[in-house]
């Protein structure tokens, strides 16, 4: 049977019904290209466009000698092989699609994507598990990591900052698994978030003033709720004259200020050595004379060091944490402080939290995929053994006769913040969204906040 007849038969019966008839050809041409152009592919000084044209020309020559291929099939193979050699194989086109936020590879023939907050199956396929493993190895090799049967799990990142998690057999029973959390090439601004309905202009004005007044802000929310996006957008209000240290597991933050120092944690090598934890970086950052410290995500014992930094003169610091509500975020921080290994009384931890944090911004991703700020909450003082909270903005699901949860609105509670003296201390003019908090939705003056 000729090659084009086998291709037609496979397309008629379904892609997954049997082996890919082009797999052998792809493998043969790919290996020949690597053998011939290997040193050039690793040359960092090579011009990307010139190298791409050289690879494409070589592929065209090799495919010209293959019989039984139509023009369309040659063009498709040309793009696939170019992506394999210079990019990340079949998922290269998904990575270049800015509307896709997540790529989930459940084996060679089962690829899913998230677009607009909804998960759907993609038509993208790998030739086989070996093809998928080759792409995984290429990704992790870029950062000097290794993944194989002896070390079957790895966290890596792409050059654009997208986070990659890979799991191989024998840990995975479904073949090689890859999850890629994409990091957009363009940073969303607060204006963009207002346009998307994530937050209101009044809340933006209030948060910008809080940053100018150097309040310590915690951004909380579940996975995929937009915490890092909010942190990025908020950071734009930090004055350009300040020295900022950012600390992350995977470098995602893109600050536009002139004086930014970026630190990134490091996983242990195959021998289990060389690990640099977030906590180590937080401690080291205190010796770098920062005006503000920004931690991409607090997830362990570094919570204690972050609280101490906020309590020792590093006002205006920001961080994010996974939590389902503002109250849950405090409970999570309390638990993470205990992970530091010190036998601290719970009341002492809560006193540190109440003293360090000024504001919590809580986000959620709603069932239709929309991301919304659900609450902006002030952290007040201790009352007995409890840290008291005060909601300054809350999300009203039923606002304006909304028919869907995402049609609601973020409304002011009418309570006056207790940190107004910090605005005066920094000579920050309180915006109308703060001075107007004495009125609820244009109604009668409120009686004041719970202190």
Give me a quick take on this structure.
The chain is α/β, with parallel strands linked by helices and 451 residues long. It is built from 15 helices and 15 strands.
Protein model, in words:
35% of the residues lie in helices and 20% in strands. It has 451 residues and is an alpha/beta fold. The strands form 2 sheets. It has a 9-stranded mixed β-sheet with strand order 9-8-10-11-7-12-13-14-15, sandwiched between helices. The longest helix is centred in the first third of the chain and has 19 residues, at 23-41. It is elongated.
Describe the secondary-structure layout:
Blueprint (H helix, E strand, L loop, with lengths): L2 H11 L9 H19 L6 H17 L6 H16 L5 H4 L4 E7 L4 E5 L2 E4 L7 H13 L11 E5 L5 E5 L9 E5 L8 H6 L5 H12 L4 E5 L5 H9 L8 E5 L11 E5 L13 H8 L6 E4 L6 H9 L7 E5 L3 H13 L7 H11 L2 E7 L5 E13 L2 E11 L12 E4 L7 H6 L6 H4 L16
Helix pairs in contact: 2-3, 2-4, 3-4, 10-11, 12-13
């Amino acid at each position: 049977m000729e090659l084009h007849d086998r291709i037609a038969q496979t397309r008629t019966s379904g892609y997954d019904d049997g082996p890919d008839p082009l797999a052998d050809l792809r493998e043969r041409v790919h290996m020949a290209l690597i053998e011939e152009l290997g040193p050039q592919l690793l040359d960092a000084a090579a011009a990307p466009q010139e190298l791409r044209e050289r690879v494409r020309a070589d592929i065209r020559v090799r495919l010209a000698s293959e019989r039984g291929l139509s023009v369309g099939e040659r063009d498709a193979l040309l793009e696939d092989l170019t992506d394999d050699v210079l990019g990340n194989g079949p998922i290269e086109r998904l990575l270049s699609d800015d509307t896709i936020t997540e790529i989930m590879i459940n084996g060679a023939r089962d690829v899913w994507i998230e677009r607009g907050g909804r998960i759907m199956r993609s038509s993208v396929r790998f030739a086989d598990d070996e093809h998928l493993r080759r792409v995984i190895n290429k990704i992790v090799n870029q950062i000097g990591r290794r993944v194989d049967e002896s070390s079957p799990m790895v966290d890596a990142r792409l050059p654009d900052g997208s986070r990659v998690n890979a799991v191989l057999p024998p840990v995975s029973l479904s073949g090689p698994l890859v999850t890629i959390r994409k990091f957009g090439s363009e940073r969303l601004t607060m204006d963009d978030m207002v346009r998307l309905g994530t937050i209101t202009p009044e809340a933006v004005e209030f948060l910008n003033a809080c940053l100018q007044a150097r309040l310590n802000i915690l951004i909380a929310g579940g996975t995929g709720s937009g915490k890092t996006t909010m942190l990025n957008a908020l950071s734009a209000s930090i004055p350009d004259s300040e020295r900022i240290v950012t600390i992350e597991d995977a470098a995602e933050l893109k600050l536009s200020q002139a004086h930014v120092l970026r630190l990134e944690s490091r996983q242990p090598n195959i021998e289990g050595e060389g690990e640099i934890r977030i906590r180590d970086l937080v401690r080291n950052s205190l010796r770098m004379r920062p005006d503000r410290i920004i931690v991409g995500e607090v997830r362990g014992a570094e919570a204690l060091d972050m609280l101490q930094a906020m309590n020792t003169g590093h006002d205006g610091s920001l961080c994010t944490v996974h939590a389902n509500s503002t109250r849950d975020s405090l409970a999570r921080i309390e638990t993470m402080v205990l992970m530091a290994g010190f036998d601290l009384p719970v009341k002492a931890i809560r006193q540190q939290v109440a003293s360090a944090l000024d504001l919590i911004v809580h986000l959620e991703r709603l069932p239709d995929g929309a991301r919304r700020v659900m609450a902006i909450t002030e952290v007040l003082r201790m009352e007995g053994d409890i840290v008291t909270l005060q909601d300054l903005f809350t999300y009203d699901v039923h606002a304006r006769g909304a028919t869907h949860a995402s049609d609601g609105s973020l409304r002011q509670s009418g309570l006056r913040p207790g940190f107004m003296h910090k605005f005066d201390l920094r000579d920050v003019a309180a915006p109308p969204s703060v001075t107007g908090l004495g009125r609820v939705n244009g109604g009668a003056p409120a009686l004041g906040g719970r202190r």
